[in-house]
Amino acid sequence: MKKEKDQWIEAIAKLTKMTQENDLVWSIGELPEFFKIEKTVEMVYITKYKDKILRIYETRVKEYAFDLFTIRKEFTWTTRTVLDFIEPSGVSLWTFPEVQGLNNLLNAVKFQVAKVKDFMKDLLNE
Predict the structure, then answer these.
(1) Based on the structure, what is the number of domains in the chain?
(2) Which of 11, 20, 53, 58 falls between 20 and 30 A from 95, CA-CA?
(3) Are 101 and 13 in contact (CB under 8 A)?
(4) Sequence-ordered list of residues with C-beta below 8 angstroms from that of 103, at least 6 positions apart, any chain
(5) pLDDT tens per residue across span 101-111
(6) Which residue ranges in the chain fall short of pLDDT 70?
């Protein structure tokens, strides 16, 4: 029997494959107001699979480090890829766990939405 984490990794891999084969078509979605205010997300992508609306995006997150000797609090920005189910209004219903493969899915989505394959085909056929 597969572990739960392995099932999530397999699900993300399947979504990536479906995206690469254009069986799952993504588009640029509406940026929710909260994301605009926080300015931690630049772009969201959405697709529909059966009766579920999926949204994927990359968010910037502050990670804090405390230095006890100087009593300073410092932070660095890191990025995190988020995949969630949303309502048509854009409200998040549930977020997928952070597992291996989310970045690959996001890259496949960006590649598809930017129509890179079409660009390369046109460019190399001229």
Answers:
(1) 1
(2) 20
(3) yes
(4) 81
(5) 999 999 999 99
(6) 1-2, 67-72
